[in-house]
Write a structure and sequence with these properties.
Length: 110
């Protein structure tokens, strides 16, 4: 859950089916948020982030920074997923879920 208009950091750690960290060295990680999970095109993404430099790749850890512009969405539930593209260009979806946006109270910045 995020508050509309906030700058946030999402820390993600990727693990295999056994719970062991996936070494994401050289991987590209995609984070996408859409208002409709059945949309077949990524051009419908409300938030789309790509990360190639990871916090701790050997332990499967990476970070996505979302700006206040990214999170400036209407209150409601959206859909997100993470995808990994490995060094052989193989794509795998690793996690998906609900990305909830709550209304903010304060809108000022100074």
């Amino acid at each position: 859950e995020v508050i509309r208009g906030d700058d946030i950091t999402i820390n993600a750690t990727f693990k295999d089916d056994n719970g062991d960290a996936i070494n994401i060295t050289g991987y590209t990680v995609f984070f996408t948020v859409k208002d409709n999970y059945t949309s077949t095109t990524d051009s419908a993404a409300l938030i789309s982030k790509t990360v190639t430099s990871h916090t701790s790749p050997t332990t499967g850890a990476t970070t996505f920074d979302l700006s206040n512009t990214d999170t400036n969405l209407s209150e409601g539930d959206y859909y997100y997923d993470f995808q990994l593209k490995d060094t052989t260009n193989k794509i795998s979806s690793t996690q998906r879920g609900i990305f909830s946006v709550s209304l903010d109270v304060t809108r000022r910045t100074s």
